[in-house]
Amino acid sequence: MRDLPWGILLMFATLAVAFALAGLWWWLLFWGGLVLWLGVVELWAVRRTGLTISGQFLAWARKHPWWAGVMAALLGGAVGYLVYHLTTGY
């Protein structure tokens, strides 16, 4: 019982309630599918390389710190815009 990722489960329960209240139940299906897909990719990555996706990025970032900074900035901007878009609609 202690091995369950309670924080992740609570996050999805909160998202489910928020999406249901907003009438966006299909977004919850999208996120559920995305989590399932990323879980499969993560397991495949660990079995193939012995590292998680984050571990692979960190290993690459140690060899190429400037490119890793550019990649992190792009990903941060994309996530920031996604949050902005989902909250404002623009």
Described by its quaternary structure, the protein is single chain
Round the mean pLDDT to the nearest integer and report it.
85
**How many strand elements?**
0
The total of helices stands at 4
Ends distance: 42 Å
Q: Mind summarizing the main beta sheet? A: none
Low-confidence stretches: none
Strand content: under 5%
Plain-language structure description:
The protein has 90 residues and is an all-alpha fold. Helices cover 86% and strands 0% of the residues. It has helices spanning 6-22, 25-49, 53-63, 65-88. Helix 1 packs antiparallel against helix 2 (25-49) and helix 3 (53-63) crosses helix 4. The longest helix is centred in the middle third of the chain and has 25 residues, at 25-49. The radius of gyration is 16 Å and the shape is flat. The model has no long low-confidence stretch (mean pLDDT 85).
